[in-house]
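Researcher: Go.
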Amino acid sequence: MRPAAAVTLLLACVAMPICPALAWGPDPQVERTLAQGHAWAEVLPDTEGAGLIHAAIDIAAPARAVWAVMTDCRLAAKLVVTVTSCKVLQSDPQARWDVREQVTRGGLFLPTIHNVIRADYQPYSLIRFHRLSGDLRIEEGEWRLEPLDGGAGTRVIYVNRVAMNLFAPAFLVRAGLKNDTPKFLMNLRRESLAAVRQARAAASPPPAGL
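Model: Structure:
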């Protein structure tokens, strides 16, 4: 789940209703950007050398459809083009959590990143995740899905605290994350809308005479 964007406040945070570092929501200026159909993202410097990502997008699809795309490992490479592998290593029979391994291909400033995270689920409104092992030093955050237009649409809010074991300047890493995060969100919108169209086509009766 994410562009070289990765995400972390640790186990205590997972058990809390709201983590202070994660309690971000769009202000009126961001709301205007979302209403114009754009994804929005910022990456702020945080403690321990981490970057704190705040991001959001509005999608004209129900939360259930967006959720299905976000949680499907088979679609990971369509959301983040640098993903080369996504595997569910463990999962709860009642779908309340899982452990995932993801590998992201490196580039000019970033190495190939292997990461294992645990995600805790509250369908179809909250995904909270944190690092278990891998190449990232810190990764913790959450996805919030909020209904729009009576549930016909969904606002996706992404908060991610991440630090990498890199010698690259922190400002360059933050710039890369700020550039990649909106791309991921736009890909999420595209795949969610495609899933809705496919579901509608499958549910539609064939034309008369066929």
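Model: Confidence is low (pLDDT under 50) at residues 1-18.
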